[in-house]
Write a structure and sequence with these properties.
With about 1450 residues, the chain is an alpha+beta fold. It contains 43 helices and 48 strands. α28 (about 1040-1050) runs parallel beside α29 (about 1065-1075), α29 (about 1065-1075) packs across α31 (about 1110-1120) and α30 runs parallel beside α33. The strands form eight sheets. Strands 16, 19, 20, 21, 22, 23, 24, 25, 26, 27, 28, 29, 30 and 31 form a 14-stranded antiparallel β-sheet that branches. β21 (about 655-665) and β22 (about 670-680) form a beta hairpin.
């Protein structure tokens, strides 16, 4: 039995039962739902074929009309069956009904595992078309008038999901008639149910029937005077309350941007604040290719005006399928573009921050969406322009955001010279045919259904609700801080309070003291849980917070005083007044001590941060950010003058910071805050200073100008053209030994962890260089968006702390000291780095963010001072550049060198390790022939190491499969390009592959002998020494053809054949093998004729793995075709050298899953090899083909044990293949599901099918119809006259007699086989077979040769691998649609070598994944995917 459906508890089989045609069903059978009224095959026939076989002989006359009412063709046929019908043929009765079902496919190409598109839910009720057709509309229209939808109102009450079944109850509600009494319009409605729940109400449906002249004269949607008056009275609203986090820097979206949103790459397109795991739609359903305008306060309502565009082309998939012979774009697809545009706007506004990340876009229940269609969108080059005005924004009772919009659709026909001008928007809809609105939508409504972020658990909620946990929360009785996710991963808490401090018990927000809980909330939770309810507006914003994790250097706030209350700006505190006392409990083993050159040396950057961070708390406490009255604002340090009073050891101590406000001013959109600070330990001050900070809106940093007013500069040594001879360069990433050289002189001054280093490359220039003529050092760093500090500073506002930029300058000074050997030159033994008292200044006028590309740091030595105690002080000034702009200046950075005691070094072996970003790791892995050792440091940093760690072995193309395959055939890769018959695998393709050392098999099957000879001569002339192979296809009904090919191969010295489609071994294939056997000098068997046996079943593989059958060998000896010795030798060797396991391939295929059939045949080979006692040299290799169109598939085959792989379908799209550009183009646009099975010409009588392209051709359905007729009738004479006429008109386009004459000519004069014709003249069944094979054979000829008037009959052999290949090459030089291809289809060599190269790369990536000691984000698409970015040389 087939699939069983249950209706009213009664199982109903939908397949494998003989179904009554509708005209034989009783009225009762049609009206009940125990029988299917129309099954899918009938629906498909109605859509793509004839109406007579579906509705009955009375309707057959309609098939003579040029067009009729149809359902959409297969690609957009969204009905699985009709279960009930209450209607009569040729009778227009109000109240007629039809019930349909549509099974939503799991992972279907229109949903791909995501949301069911709006269009699908609407369009699946498409059988109003079938209902009005059954009622007889085409008896009146007679092909002169066509169906067009006019109006509908849709109200949604829910959504459906893949795997569910939609049920539509469709009803006819009325008719309108023309002057002659004919039906000119009909009115209908439907209810859609899913699992018994109401999903959609469609009301006020209206469709008309129009002739071409009427359609051409349509003026589209007209905005009447009443409409315009009503519009003028609309009161504009304020969009600002709904601009949660608007993406104001991005108001245009390119085609690449929209494709990226399909791939869930929202953050790449809109920025890191828009991290969203949501597929906008499927690639096929993307109806918005560009967005040219987003104006948030635009439109009549002031809530948003958006302009989107959909590029139109007659070849796009949605025209040919809707409808056959009457192409017009479906309005449902246009409606889906509206929903896509509205989704984008809701994300753009920042609504995604109002709900948890697992939200869903759903229609707003109960909101009516009215549609008017007043113009058809026919096939043409141009674009649709979506003009969307948002009319309502808000939050529902569940606090879920929603949006409602109206949309006008403008059809721009570029072939008629039409354009779209935004400035002329008000002129559309006024009756001008060149400015026509074809469709308008009123009330497109969506909401983001999910858990509101405001509903998150409070600070006292269970810690199990958080994705990150503070270690203090694990102590019984302690509260659990909340956690707000960001695009960056949280890091462990590095600092916890020293125990038993009574001030750490209070955690009430907005009350002093503030403890670890409050500071945790401030750094990565709710700001209001630290500062009080007045700060709730910042809880879900991207406003700068207190530094987090490794840089959280405020343990508690103990006191606030000197506040001044009153009215200041818009707050009740004077931001200019206030003193705050804070503390930091500094651990003895803090990460920064472990990372520096010795255990007591604290980085200057950490001292800076401890001094500055209390100001960041104080500025909020005195309400400076509230004076800005904005939700997303940035806090940045601007400058400071600081003095190190004393260099003391603060390990294990509590550092006290007293910070005081000294002034606050509002300057336009900025707030400038000034402070002083003083650090002390045990009452002893050691660091003090004054500093200023700014509060900014993000736009200020969108185009930073730096210290030099926007002037782009190079580092000093490049600007001043320092000679290369003066520069000593150390590459800390690519050349670990270089770093070893740098630190070898003074290992005691070596920084011990990469977390304390900030430079990839160091350039040392001693002597009279630099601004002060006393030496210079430069360092460079490629910005790594995954650097640790972006998670820390700040959690919702990632930017490198300025202090770490200053620290890079200290690193340069240390490198200068080491390289110039200052310690030894000044008799300092066991030197160590320390700080020295003195004043330092810095100024910041820009930032380094994850979007930055390169950081350059430089220092100019200005003093080297020898001290009375023998120590040395080095003073320098420095600059930091970001992408060519100088953004930091530091004055009088001070480093002291003194003698220290000899102590063992605790080091992370920097001399043999180099940090790696994801991008750098990718480059290492792409160097396929070089091993690389990797390790993960305790701080999470991935490094390359010269010893230890985990080795990632080299993987080259030669490593993928069995090397003996390459040795046997003299090739460079364990693969070959499979033979596609009829010369699709052309001589040019084989030659192109062979010249690059790739084995290619020429598609000789189905070609006339003279073509095979000509092609073989061409191949042998170009490849006299190979490599090449020629296909020998089994011809069970034409042994002469098979014998002629073998004769030719033996005559011309063809030493490799690919034997395919053999159901059994034949004398000819055995002859080829045996005739190539001879004895070597020592009597051993020498094989000169190699066979690759192509098969998809174990029994067929077995015949190739075993020796040739003795019976066939004996006959060949008797006929003199081979010698006795050759027969004897043939009994000791396998029939084939290689077995190519053909899985789900194009052309002949059993659709076997590769992961099932390949292991079975490998195991079979092993068993037979042992049974036959073959030596290892005769072990038959087993390769894999079918479904291999991308690196992942190739690697999977190799990993399952394939000795080699075979590619097929993907080569047909290459420019060297023997097909036409029309076919190549169709293939280049196909997805994995655009294929189906159809009868094969060569084994038609046996019912054998092959896999073909179904997109854009009627061949599959017509070929299946031929086989149905062949099975049903014994001759043309038995066939009904109407059936013969239909066959002649639709399929043959010739009379049967004409077809038979051409068939006779072919067999007699081309195949020299008159016997078959003589038999066929007596055997009506055989004659039918030969005539049907005439069509099946020519259909591939028409395709290969690009016969224009037979496009709908193209037979294109194709497997699902084409979809994987197109996805693999999309947007690269191998994509004919991409500009870098120069309009050329891909080269067969490049296509295959890129797949193999990608497989090598992914194999290395899998090695990385398998190393459990390596902590790498395996979801990073940058690393764990491969794209053919540039040609392989």
């Amino acid at each position: 039995m087939g699939k069983l459906l249950e209706r009213n508890g009664v199982p109903v089989a939908t397949k494998n039962l003989k179904k009554k045609p509708v005209w034989e069903m009783t009225k009762e059978e049609q009206k009940n739902d125990t029988d299917v009224v129309f099954d899918f095959d009938e629906l498909l026939e109605f859509a793509e074929g004839d109406i007579g076989p579906v509705f009955g002989p009375k309707f057959s006359i309609i098939d003579n009309y040029s067009r009729r009412v149809r359902l959409p063709a297969r690609e957009y046929l969204l009905v699985s069956r009709v279960t009930k019908m209450d209607a009569e043929p040729n009778q227009f009765r109000i109240g007629a009904t039809m019930t349909t079902e549509y099974d939503l496919p799991v992972n279907g190409e229109l949903s791909e595992g995501g949301d069911i598109p709006w269009a699908i839910l609407v369009e699946s009720g498409q059988c109003d078309l079938m209902l009005i057709s059954y009622m007889g509309i085409d008896f009146q229209c007679k092909g002169n008038r066509v169906y067009r939808l006019l109006d509908t109102t849709l109200t949604f009450y829910g959504v459906a999901y893949e795997g569910e079944t939609l049920t539509y109850d469709i009803k006819v509600n009325g008719f309108a008639k023309g002057p002659g009494g004919e039906v000119s319009m009909f009115f209908f409605s439907y209810d859609c149910y899913c699992n018994g729940r109401l999903l959609i109400e469609m009301r006020n449906g209206a469709a008309g029937f129009f002739d071409d002249e009427t359609l051409a004269q349509g003026k589209g949607v007209i905005h009447t005077k009443g409409d315009l008056l009503k519009r003028s009275k609309i009161v504009k609203q304020d969009v600002k309350p709904f601009m949660v986090e608007p993406c104001t820097h991005k108001t245009k979206f390119t085609e690449a941007d929209m494709q990226a949103l399909v791939d869930k790459k929202w953050d790449q397109v809109m920025g890191r604040n828009y991290f969203l795991d949501y597929k906008l739609t499927t690639k096929k359903m993307l109806m918005i290719d560009r967005v040219t305008h987003i104006i948030p306060n635009g439109g009549a309502y002031g809530l948003g005006l958006l302009i989107g565009e959909k590029i139109l082309d007659p070849d796009h998939w949605y025209f040919p399928c809707h409808f056959v012979k009457d192409q017009v774009m479906a309005g449902s697809l246009v409606s889906d573009g509206c929903s896509q545009l509205l989704k984008l706007y809701m994300v753009w506004l920042g609504f995604l921050n109002k709900v948890e990340p697992d939200f869903k876009f759903v229609p707003v229940d109960g909101t009516a969406n009215k549609v008017r269609c007043r113009g058809q969108i026919s096939p043409h080059k141009g674009k649709l322009v979506y003009v969307m005005e948002v009319r309502e924004l808000g939050y529902d009772s569940n606090n879920n955001p929603y949006a409602v919009a109206d949309v006008d659709i403008i059809d721009v026909h570029t072939e008629l010279g039409q354009t779209f001008n935004f400035d002329e928007l008000d002129q559309y809809g006024r009756g001008d045919l060149s400015k026509k609105i074809v469709v308008d939508f009123k009330g497109i409504a969506l909401r983001m259904k999910g858990t509101p972020r405001d509903a998150r658990p409070s600070a006292s909620a269970s810690s199990s609700t958080a994705v990150w946990e503070h270690p203090m929360a694990k102590i019984p009785g302690n509260p659990t801080p909340s956690f707000t996710p960001s695009p960056y991963p949280p890091r462990p808490v590095c600092f916890t309070p020293f125990p038993n401090n009574p001030l750490d018990k209070n955690s009430v927000p907005g009350q002093i003291p503030l403890n670890w809980f409050n500071m945790s909330e401030f750094m990565c939770g709710k700001v209001s849980a630290c500062l009080g309810d007045e700060f709730k507006r910042f809880d879900n914003s991207k406003t700068s917070r207190s530094p987090a994790f490794d840089l959280a250097l405020v343990t508690r706030v103990t006191e606030v005083k000197d506040l001044e209350h009153g009215k200041f700006y818009n707050v009740d505190l004077n931001p200019s007044k206030g003193t705050m006392v804070a503390e930091f409990d500094c651990p003895r083993d803090a990460w920064f001590y472990k990372g520096m050159s010795h255990d007591s040396h604290i980085p200057y950057s950490i001292i800076m941060e401890i001094g500055l961070q209390t100001s960041g708390v104080l500025t909020s406490w005195v309400k400076a950010p509230l004076t800005m009255d904005k939700d997303d604002i940035l806090f940045r340090n601007l400058d400071a003058t600081a003095e190190l009073i004393k260099d003391i050891d603060v390990r294990g101590k509590t550092i006290k910071n007293v910070s005081k406000c000294t002034g606050y001013n509002m300057l336009g959109k900025m707030g400038i805050h000034r402070f002083t600070f003083e650090l002390s330990v045990d009452g002893e001050p050691f660091y003090k200073g004054s500093t200023s900070f700014g509060w900014f809106v993000p736009e200020v940093f969108a185009s930073q100008v730096g210290l030099d007013n926007g002037k782009v500069m190079k580092p000093w040594y490049l600007e001043n053209k320092v000679p290369a001879a003066a520069i000593t360069t150390f590459q800390s990433v690519d050349k670990p030994a270089g770093v070893q050289k740098l630190v070898a002189k003074q290992p005691s001054m070596q920084r011990r962890s990469f977390q304390c280093q900030f430079l990839d490359t160091v350039n040392i220039i001693p002597g009279n260089y630099g601004m002060h003529g006393k030496g210079y050092a430069h360092g460079k760093k490629t910005v790594n968006k995954n650097d640790w500090f972006f998670s820390c500073h700040f959690w919702m506002d990632p930017v490198m702390p300025g202090s770490l930029g200053i620290e890079s300058m200290f690193q340069l000074i240390e490198s200068f000291i080491i390289n110039t050997d200052l310690a030894s030159k000044n008799s300092i033994t066991n030197p160590k780095i320390t700080h020295t008292p003195g004043e330092t200044k810095w100024k910041y006028r820009g930032q380094l963010s994850p979007k930055s590309k390169q950081m350059d740091s430089e220092v100019h030595i200005k003093e080297v001072q020898k001290q009375p105690d023998g120590s040395l002080i080095v003073v320098a000034d420095g600059y930091l550049l970001v992408d060519g702009l100088r953004v930091y200046f530091a004055e009088s950075l001070r480093v002291r060198i003194e003698s220290g005691s000899q102590q063992p070094m605790r080091t992370e072996s920097i001399g043999s390790e180099s940090p790696l970003s994801v991008e750098q790791l990718r480059e290492k892995l792409l160097n396929l022939s070089s091993p690389v050792r990797l390790a993960t440091k305790p701080n999470g940093q991935l490094v390359q190491t010269t010893s230890g760690g985990e080795e990632i072995a080299p993987v080259t193309i030669a490593d993928l499969g069995d090397k003996s395959f390459m040795e046997t055939y003299g090739v460079v890769a364990p693969m070959y390009t499979g033979a596609m018959a009829k010369g699709i695998a052309s001589a040019d393709l084989v030659i192109a592959a062979g010249k690059k050392g790739i084995l290619g098999s020429f598609g000789a099957g189905g070609l006339p002998m003279h073509i095979v000879k000509e092609s073989l001569a061409k191949i042998q002339a170009a490849l006299p020494n190979g490599p090449y192979a020629v296909n020998l296809i089994h011809s069970p009904f034409d042994s002469n053809l098979e014998e002629g090919n073998v004769d030719l191969f033996l005559e011309k010295g063809v030493h490799v054949i690919e034997a395919s489609a053999f159901m059994d071994l034949t004398p000819q294939v055995v002859r080829y093998r045996a005739a190539g056997l001879k004895r070597g000098a020592n009597g051993e068997v020498v094989i000169t004729n190699r066979i690759i046996g192509k098969c998809s079943r174990t029994e067929l593989a077995e015949m190739f793995i075993r020796p040739a059958p003795e019976k066939l060998l004996r006959k060949l000896v008797q006929s003199g075709k081979i010698t006795e010795d050759q027969a004897a030798m043939a009994k000791t060797i396998p029939m084939a050298d290689d077995v190519a396991v053909e899985a789900d391939s194009g052309g002949h295929t059993d659709n076997r899953p590769l992961h099932v059939i390949l292991p079975l045949i490998i195991n079979l080979r092993n068993r037979i090899h042992k049974e036959c006692g073959y030596p290892d040299s005769l072990r038959v290799r087993v390769g894999a083909g079918g479904g291999i169109g991308c690196p992942s598939a190739a690697l999977a085959a190799y990993n399952m044990g394939a000795a080699f792989i075979i590619t097929g379908t993907i080569n047909q799209v290459c420019r060297q293949s023997g097909t036409c550009d029309n076919v190549r183009k169709a293939l280049s646009q196909a997805s994995y599901s655009d294929i189906t099975m159809a009868p094969a010409a060569d084994m038609f009588d046996q019912g054998v099918e092959l896999q073909v392209l179904k997109k854009g051709t009627m061949f599959p359905s017509r070929a299946k119809k031929l086989y149905e007729l062949f099975c049903k009738y014994n001759s043309f004479d038995e066939m009904p006259v109407d059936e013969v006429k239909r066959l002649e008109k639709r399929t043959f386009r010739k009379t049967v007699a004409e077809v038979w004459e051409e068939t006779k000519d072919f067999y007699i004069n081309r195949l020299h086989n008159p016997d078959k014709i003589e038999r066929a003249e007596k055997d009506g069944k055989l004659k039918m077979s030969l005539c049907f094979r005439w069509y099946l054979g020519l259909s591939s000829f028409w395709a290969n040769n690009g016969i224009e008037d037979r496009v709908m009959d193209y037979q294109v052999w194709c497997g699902p691998a084409i979809g994987a290949f197109n996805d693999f090459v999309k947007g690269t030089y191998l994509d004919v649609a991409h500009p870098s291809s120069n309009g050329q289809f891909p080269c067969v060599v490049q296509a295959n070598m890129q797949i193999l190269t990608g497989a090598c790369y992914l194999d290395r990536v899998n090695q990385v994944k398998s190393k459990r000691k390596l902590d790498i984000d395996t979801t990073d698409a940058t690393l764990f995917s491969y794209k053919p970015d540039s040609p392989i040389q």
